[in-house]
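Working notes for the structural subgroup meeting. M.R. asked for a predicted model of this chain before we commit to crystallization trials. I am recording the input and output together here so anyone reviewing the notebook later can reproduce the run.

Input as submitted:
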Amino acid sequence: MARPPAGLFFVPGAARAAGCRYHDGMEAALQSLAAKITQAAARGRPLRIRGGGTKDFYGQQLHGELLDARPLAGVLAYEPSELVVTVGAGTRLRELEALLAEAGQHLPFEPPRFGVAGTVGGAVAAGLSGPARASVGAARDFVLGAQLINGRGERLNFGGQVMKNVAGYDISRLLAGSLGTLGLITQLSLKVLPRAPAEATLVFALSETSARQQLNRWCGQPLPLSASAWADGQLWVRLRGAQAALASACRQMGGERLDEPRAQRQWDALRDQTLPFFRLAPDEALWRVSVPDTASPLNLGPTLVEWHGAQRWLRLPPAEAPRVREVAARLGGHATLFRGGDGVTPVFTPLTPPLARIHQALKREFDPAGIFCPGRLTPDF
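Returned structure, recorded in token form:
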């Protein structure tokens, strides 16, 4: 499908049925946003980029005048046979998913939604991935191209609508996880995939250690593993693939097979963090610990394990930061204070000096006046 003219949102009939907003006002919205950025840079006034606001909890601090990305909403191009969709960054995530579902497709990395107002731009800027991350890849792996407005008010284009190797910085993927610190993402091209023809969820009563060992054995076999989660003595395993492959895997693995509606509710609740585990007490924070999937149990507090063991969620006070980060580092990983921070404890593990220099160099290039989301990643970034 040919790309629509600049400034015009094009939405096929399926998108209209899905309720996606589209209009011919994108050019006016882009001009207005670029003007605001240019003025803010001239005055040294910080800006806080925001879409639906569902991830305001994530990051070190929110600072600056609000720069609303929601006017950049709509589907610019979508041809299911090409497995790529191009949308404005302010497009609601749920609307895009509804459109893809009509064509039997989806966003394979299952970005957490955290509410109905979440946007595609916010999902990519946060760089978060859902339960299928260990099987299909991360959010950045599905970003084919991006457009953004930098700190000079310039519109920049990176990548495209096909997967290719890039020499040097791959800026379109670099934006995933940048939390708006490099510029305002205005448009994204994402790779999409067909939904699996069949799905099954198996449940096993296992300790954390036994669950990790069993998952390691299964990962070494030709099984259609899609996602896994362990908490409170139960291991949940999701399988996706052809019907015959699932039937064979279920016979081989055993366990209790859940009915599909219940299983879907469970995985959605895990993806969007609405499970009871994620309800924090007043003195608790939610920690995300990334370690090798073969790492032993952390034994630090209440734990939920995802990604076949590579992602561990903990409920602990922010003051436990030194202990959590020491254990994570000893196991070859790192820890993020994901939710419920005290505003003082660093949210992200401090970068090594070489990586910090690269970050600062990129920040100076894209945002020389330092106006975009200051302090969101670190107090001095």
